[in-house]
Amino acid sequence: MLLDPNRHIAHLDLDTFFISVEQLRNPTLNGKPVLVGGSNNRGVVAACSYEARRFGIHSAMPMFHAKRLCPHAIIVKSDFEAYSKYSTMVTDIIRDSVPLVEKASIDEFYIDMTGMDKFFGCRKFTEELKEKISKESGLPISYGLASNKLISKVATNEAKPKAQIEILFGNEKEFLAPLSVMKLPGVGTKVGYQLLKMGIETIRTLSRIPVEMLETLLGKNGTELWRRAQGIDETPVIPYREQKSISTERTYQQDTIDVAFLKSELFRMTERIAFDLRQQNRLTGCVTVKIRYSDFETHDVQRSIPYTNADHELFAAALALFTKLYQRRQLIRLLGIRFTHLIPGTYQIDLFEDQQETIQLYQSIDSIKTRFGPNSIVRARSLFAKPPFKPDH
Fold first, then answer.
1. What is the C-alpha to C-alpha distance for residues 147 and 5, in angstroms, rounded to an integer?
2. Nearest Cα to 16, choosing from 69, 76, 63?
3. Which residue, among 121, 118, 113, has the nearest Cα to 97 in the 3D structure?
4. Is 108 a catalytic residue?
5. HSE-up of residue 150 (Cα within 13 Å, Cβ side)
6. Measured between alpha carbons, how far is residue 10 from residues 110, 146, 153, 288 in Å?
7. Which of 43, 52, 280, 353 supports an S-S bond with 57, CB 3.0-4.6 Å?
């Protein structure tokens, strides 16, 4: 069944989340053009208030460009610890209120209310939940209610800010039709530009193109875009479970005291699971390094860090911990690293003082790894030392 009249899916999105948190902590920012992100000229805008958007500013814009557009904008450095706190607060409110919730990112959620219309009325229930979240957290939130995740998400984006839209079953295509193809999830800048060059500006036009033609033009992605243009989405709401940590470790066939090799191994493991973090859209706030000596005595040490999932920042922390931990100069049997204090977030919004070149580098690296595998591109430092033996896997 392509469309189910009995499904009721709501998508909730906290409006300008980073900005709203900063305004809640500092009410003097209300009604002013505010930018969150790196404060130096080579940094990037992670988020901006609606007042700043009126000047043409948007997220991911170079900070120097944003300053030119709005010289009087107030710049606030990102505080992921605070954002995580408020995200957890809202998550708990929703989890206590609904039977099935998916946390799609640090500031957006899907809830499945299928069957609840028999008891409460899905629209009334979602309105009350929206009010409850705003009252208890102090944060503005919008939502879209529809028969699937795709339509509810697009509806939320149309409702913002501080509002809601319900798309009744059977009206999915009609709702999408007049919207720009750029508003359809899955249409990125590259595909969107390709469609616009072909004269396909609205979802209505896209929906009328034969699926076979879109397959020829865009491959498998063309088939999926055709389905979305019809308002079809059978993706289930995936129950949210908080992941506590991500880690890896290696036990060696032969114990070693080769420090150069061990540091190279540490970098390789850090690089691997940092990529996993980025794939999962997560950041870590704590790094732990573990070693086991040849006599099986095991030690570990941990350190809290600013939230990140960048290789270079995580390796710097891991190396400092290893240097602090490895004092006995005894043969090592096992080496491991673990990231904890995980929160939703991506490198693209964990900008702090990062330069545009750094962000673009990570985007390129991850694109290659996603397409060809995690070992398709590695940093030279992870290949610094050849293992004196073949490690177990």
1. 7
2. 76
3. 113
4. yes
5. 24
6. 6, 6, 8, 38
7. 52
Give the residue ranges of DSSP H helices in 280-339: 311-325
Q: Distance between CA atoms of 17 and 36, rounded to whole angstroms? A: 11
Question: Which uninterrupted H or E stretch holds 339?
Answer: strand 332-340
Q: Which two tokens stand for residue 232?
A: 């079809």
Kindly give the confidence (pLDDT) of every residue in the chain, 393 residues in length, as a single tens digit, with 9 standing for 90 and above.
466 778 999 999 999 999 999 999 999 999 999 999 876 666 788 899 999 999 999 988 888 899 999 999 999 988 888 888 899 899 999 999 988 999 888 899 999 988 776 667 889 999 999 999 999 999 999 999 999 999 999 999 999 999 999 999 999 999 999 999 999 998 888 888 889 998 999 999 999 999 999 898 888 888 999 999 999 999 999 887 777 889 999 999 899 999 999 999 999 899 989 988 888 888 888 999 999 999 989 999 999 888 888 888 899 999 999 999 998 889 999 999 999 988 777 644 444 445 555 666 666 666 666 666 666 565 655 555 455 555 444
Collapsed DSSP state (helix, strand, coil) of residue 74: strand
pTM above 0.85, yes or no: no
Q: Report d(CA 311, CA 70) in Å as an integer.
A: 33
**Which domains are assigned to the chain?**
1-170 (3.30.70.270), 171-239 (1.10.150.20), 245-383 (3.30.1490.100)
* CA separation for the pair 141, 130 (Å, rounded): 7
- Asked if 272 and 369 count as a contact pair (C-beta separation under 8 A), the reply is no
